[in-house]
Each structure stands twice: as structure tokens, then as C-alpha cells.
Design goal:
By secondary structure, the chain is an alpha/beta fold. It has a domain of 40 residues: Up-down Bundle (Monooxygenase), CATH 1.20.1280. It is built from 24 helices and 23 strands. The chain has a 19-stranded parallel sheet. The protein has a two-stranded parallel sheet with strand order 4-6. The protein has a two-stranded parallel sheet with strand order 13-15. The termini are far apart.
Length: 616
């Protein structure tokens, strides 16, 4: 029976990866349908340093990729010196770009060294390219390139130049192809070359990132009438002398600015000046220094949609004088957050779609957070970063009625345990992230999945109690598309086996800095570049992913009844306990040999509890 393509794609979504590969051999039509689904949005990252560390040949890797008929839309090439490539590798690169260049929409060259002739060859093969980024590259002029010759790139929209030497060679070659916009990063190196680019192409520079020592350089740039920026980012070098205050007058010339990110702290008066000068501003990220100054007038943001505000002290006094009409995203960073601040947020920002709260303590906000559903009914995402012992149970109970809420992010909240996480009951939740927690175990994850069965993006990073059994529970969520279990010291390569067998829809997997996996992974005989190659490798060498786990007894202190009251940060590892026991045995033998006096013997015999501590 000849089914429509849509029905075949729906049936295909239920197959495991190995079955998907077999399905491509049924017919040419099935192969075309399935390979389009698999490789439509794949990102390819070629890093010569990683290839070399795996004892693989760069030429062999490029040859294997070039033979495929996959449609990669995003390609990143890092740490490749095209001037020192041998003849075989150079030929394979040419074949690689010729075969897959037609589908590439975005190309990133990172820390690469090449000539203008090589850049012309690459650009000539990627005719559908829309964005080309150069990060920390070195471009040399090649006299063999015919002067005035240019590649035909009718769809080129953006050229990104970030910390790249001799950027004028890139602009001369690609700058006149469809008149693309330019994203430029400036630092104290080669400042004269940057100024030449700004002088010639100032009207096409829409993004500018500055990381310099001297304020005068920024003043000179912003005073240019032909520079109409849409995004401006000012960064301060370590121990640098960049001061924002003298730039009050220069901001008035950038009335077209939509996004402003300021790393150096600014004064309250300058914040007022920005609100008056940049009326079209839609995104603002700023740190305000309140020492020796007070806000005496109100600040009105007419078009601001996203505000990231960082104030160490007295943040409520500043926020109380602000008025918003279109604010949709708000992030507040301070040392201690009080309930009065949240009440002002409820009052002024009823249209919020995303809220982020970062503070050392949120203890005084726990009760007020319990009414967030009544004041911010359109919330779609909540981010909380706090190191206090707040459980957030009132917050979890209140957000059950937020029908548009799809994302929750929790960082460094160690008071959240398996018992408290059961209060998160949102059937329509799509993304959940918890970082730096030492109390969530497989029991809490099981309760989370029971209450939130539609999670597609899951991050459980730096959670020390995440084990293979916890990953086995995660692998039962077949709908997962993104999984981040970085910095999980207890998981082994068995976790990858659970993931590969069950998470058939997974598109991205992050397992960096997992000690036990890295120890075993050193013996892997093949280069793994992405989730697709990992699945190929798993189907080819399944025996590699079986690792024996010893049945370790469960300690009574980890039971559900008392885990809320146990301080897991003070748990000693098994190695430290063994070493302490050996030290105690040696100490006992020494005491017996020294024949202690009667008083010492009486004290030791009458002791009911002996405590061994590994305190520093």
C-alpha cells in the first residue's frame, strides 16, 4: 500500500535508531524520506585537535563525511591550518565542500589559518550560505588570487568578524556579495584595521562588541553619524580602565539601537539618560552602582521588552521608580531579595512571560512567591538561582494553574529534595533544569516524570546523587529531545547504553566532565563527533557499553524519611572512610604497644561512641 509521506514519517517516529537505518534499505522513496528527517537539521563540528587526540587522521574523517549525501545546514571548522595541510587532506576538504556545500546555510571558521584564495574556493562552493562567522582566525593575502574576482553569494546576509586578524581581506572578498550586514568585535589589538572597516562600511555594521581599555576609543566610534547600530555590547577587560560615564552624550547618536549590553557598572543618573536617549531600546542588560547616589525621578521604558538588572543593594528603590509598557522578560540579580520587590514586580509587569530571580537569599520571598499565579498569569518560564535553604514549596504549588508555563530552571537550591520536587505538578511542562543540587535522586526524578510527562528538554547538571539507576529512569521518557547530565561523577558508561536503547527522539546529549565515563571512554577505538555518530558506534560496538556495577549496600541515612534533614555536603567518600579506618587501626596498635596508663584506659573503656572526623 502506498501511504502518504506524512503517515510514513509518523510511523517512522516510533522506530528505534537501528530500525530507522534498516528502513532506509526498503526502497528509494523510504530512504529519501528517512534521511531527510535524520539529517535535515544536523550540525557538523570538525575540530582538528579532537581528531588528533583520538589518534585519527583528519583526511580519513573528512573523506568519510564527504562520501555521505547528508544535508548539513550548520558547519563549524575549528583549529585547522589550511596552509599546512598535506595534499591528500586538502583534496578531501575540496571534495567535502563540493559535495555538501549546496545545503550549508551557516559556516563558522574558528581559530583557523587560511589564505584569501582558499577562502574564495570555500565561498564558491557554499552558494546558499546566509551567515559566515570568523572567530579568532588568521587570513593571509594571496597574490595568486585574481584582483577584483568575487564569489557569487546571492543569499549572504551576515558576516561575523570576531577577533580575526587581517579582517580587511575578508571584507574585500565578501563585503560586496549581496551587501551583507557586518557583526564586528573590537579589542585593543589591530584597532587601526577595525577603524578602517568602520570608516568604509559603517552603514552596514549592525552589531558591535567592544572590549577595550580606553573610553576614548568608544567615544570616537559612537560619535560617527554613519554608524547606525542595532546591537552594542561594551565589555571591560580585567583591571581595565573603561568608564561609561563620559559616554552619556554619545548614546544620543545611536537612536536606532535595539539591544544594549553594558558590562561596566553605571550610575543611576546614566540609567536615566539611557531611558531618555534610547527610546527604541528593546533589550537592556546593565549593572547599576548605587553607592553615593539616589534615584530622584521616575524612569519610563516605552519599548523595552527584556531587562536584565543587577544591583548589589537597594534594588527595590530603583525598580520602584521604573514604569514599563511592553516588558516581557525580567531578570533581577541582587544579594538579598525582599518581598516588597516582588510586589512591585507583580504590580508593574503583569505581561511578563519570563522571570529570573538570582540572589543569595530568597527566604523573605517564599510566601509572596506562592501568589505568582494570580499576578503573572502569562508566565512561560521561571529561572531561580539561590543558595539559601528555601524549599519553594509555595511557588511549586501556585504555578500548577499557569497554563502557559513550559520551562523551569533551578540553580544551587540545595533545600529542594525528593519530597519537595513532588510539588511540581505541571502536565504541560516542556523543559526542566536543575543544577548544583546534592539531594535529588532517582526517587525525585521518578516523581517529577509522573507529574510532568511531557518534558522534552532535561538538564540535571552537577547533581552528585545522579547514578546509573537515575539515568535508567530518565531513559524511560522516550519523548526527550535534549539531555544534559554534565558533571555527574557517579554515572558510568551503562548510562549511555540506557539512553541509546530508549531515547529514540534524542537530538543532543551532553555528558562532559563525568569522571567514570571519561575513564572508560579513553579506550574507545573510534572518533565520536555528535549524537548521530554515537548511535552508529553503539550499533557497531554494543559490547563496549556494558560495564559491571557492583551491588553496593544502601545506607540507612539515604532513606526517604530522613533525607530532608541530612547534610549531604558533609558526606565522606568511601575512600576517605577506608583511610580513616586504617588510620584508626594503626593508632590502636600503637596505643597497645605504648602500654597506656590506667586513667587513659578507663576513659577509653567507658566511651560509648567513638567519632572519627576528617575535618580540615
Amino acid at each position: 500500500m502506498d501511504f502518504p509521506t506524512e503517515i510514513i514519517e509518523y510511523i517512522y517516529s516510533f522506530l528505534s535508531f537501528s530500525d530507522k537505518l534498516r528502513a532506509t534499505e526498503v526502497s528509494l522513496r523510504w530512504r529519501a524520506i528517512f534521511e531527510t528527517i535524520i539529517f535535515k537539521k544536523l550540525l557538523l563540528n570538525i575540530n582538528q585537535e579532537i581528531v588528533t587526540s583520538k589518534n585519527e587522521s583528519l583526511s580519513t574523517i573528512i573523506q568519510c563525511i564527504a562520501r555521505t549525501e547528508r544535508a548539513y545546514q550548520h558547519i563549524t571548522i575549528a583549529n585547522v591550518d589550511f596552509k599546512k595541510l598535506d595534499r591528500s587532506t586538502e583534496i578531501q576538504f575540496n571534495v567535502f565542500f563540493t559535495n555538501i556545500g549546496f545545503s550549508v546555510k551557516e559556516l563558522t571558521l574558528k581559530n583557523c589559518h587560511f589564505t584569501t584564495e582558499k577562502l574564495y574556493q570555500i565561498a564558491s562552493t557554499v552558494k546558499q550560505i546566509q551567515t559566515i562567522n570568523f572567530d579568532c582566525c588568521n587570513v593571509d593575502y594571496d597574490a595568486n588570487l585574481v584582483p577584483g574576482i568575487r564569489p557569487v553569494l546571492d543569499n549572504l546576509k551576515t558576516i561575523g568578524l570576531h577577533d580575526t586578524m587581517d579582517e580587511n581581506h575578508v571584507i574585500d572578498l565578501l563585503g560586496n556579495c549581496n551587501s551583507p550586514n557586518i557583526e564586528l568585535s573590537i579589542n585593543d589589538s589591530y584597532i587601526e584595521d577595525k577603524m578602517k572597516i568602520i570608516t568604509e562600511y559603517g552603514d552596514r555594521i549592525k552589531y558591535l562588541s567592544c572590549k577595550v581599555y580606553h573610553t576614548f576609543t568608544i567615544q570616537t566610534l559612537l560619535n560617527r553619524s554613519d554608524l547606525k547600530l542595532r546591537t552594542l555590547q561594551l565589555q571591560r577587560k580585567p583591571l581595565g580602565g573603561l568608564y561609561i560615564r563620559p559616554l552619556d552624550a554619545q548614546f544620543k547618536h545611536q537612536d536606532n539601537l535595539r539591544e544594549l549590553r553594558l558590562d561596566p557598572p553605571i550610575s543611576i543618573s546614566m540609567l536615566v539618560e539611557i531611558s531618555k536617549s534610547l527610546v527604541s531600546l528593546e533589550f537592556l542588560s546593565v549593572e547599576v552602582d548605587t553607592i553615593g547616589s539616589m534615584l530622584k525621578e521616575s524612569i519610563t521604558w516605552l519599548n523595552l521588552k527584556m531587562l536584565h538588572l543587577s544591583v548589589r543593594m537597594e534594588i527595590n528603590e530603583i525598580f520602584e521608580q521604573m514604569e514599563f509598557t511592553k516588558l516581557e522578560e525580567l531578570e533581577l540579580h541582587t544579594e538579598e531579595m525582599i518581598g516588597m520587590l516582588l510586589q512591585n514586580v507583580y504590580k508593574k509587569c503583569r505581561m511578563l512571560k519570563r522571570i529570573g530571580l538570582s540572589a543569595l537569599s530568597l527566604a523573605y520571598c517564599n510566601r509572596i512567591l506562592g501568589s505568582i499565579n494570580m499576578h503573572l498569569p502569562k508566565l512561560e518560564a521561571i529561572d531561580i538561582q539561590c543558595s539559601s535553604r528555601t524549599t519553594f514549596v509555595p511557588l511549586f504549588d501556585s504555578i500548577k494553574s499557569l497554563e502557559q508555563l513550559t520551562s523551569i530552571t533551578i540553580c544551587f537550591c540545595n533545600a529542594i529534595t525528593d519530597q519537595t520536587i513532588m510539588h511540581i505538578n505541571i502536565p504541560f511542562l516542556r523543559s526542566f533544569s536543575i543544577t548544583g543540587n546534592r539531594k535529588i535522586s532517582r526517587t525525585g526524578l521518578q516523581r517529577l516524570f509522573d507529574n510532568c510527562p511531557r518534558i522534552k528538554t532535561l538538564t540535571v547538571r552537577d547533581c552528585t546523587r545522579l547514578s546509573d539507576e537515575a539515568v535508567k529512569i530518565i531513559s524511560t521518557q522516550v519523548q526527550l529531545e535534549y539531555l544534559d547530565i554534565n558533571e555527574s561523577p557517579e554515572i558510568t558508561i551503562n548510562s549511555i547504553r540506557y539512553i541509546m536503547d530508549n531515547l529514540i527522539h534524542l537530538r543532543e546529549l551532553k555528558i562532559d566532565n563525568c569522571k567514570r565515563i571519561l575513564t572508560l571512554w579513553r579506550s574507545a577505538p573510534q572518533f565520536i563527533q555528535n549524537i548521530h555518530s554515537l548511535r552508529r558506534y553503539y550499533n557497531t560496538y554494543p559490547e563496549f557499553f556494558y560495564y559491571h556495577l557492583s551491588d553496593e549496600p544502601v545506607d540507612d541515612k539515604f532513606t526517604d524519611d530522613n533525607r530532608d534533614f541530612y547534610d549531604y555536603e558533609d558526606l565522606a567518600s568511601e575512600e576517605s572512610e577506608d583511610s580513616l579506618f586504617e588510620e584508626y587501626v594503626r593508632y590502636k596498635e600503637q596505643i597497645e604497644q605504648d602500654d597506656p596508663n590506667e586513667e587513659q584506659m578507663d576513659n577509653r573503656n567507658n566511651a560509648e561512641i567513638i567519632v572519627l572526623s576528617d575535618d580540615d
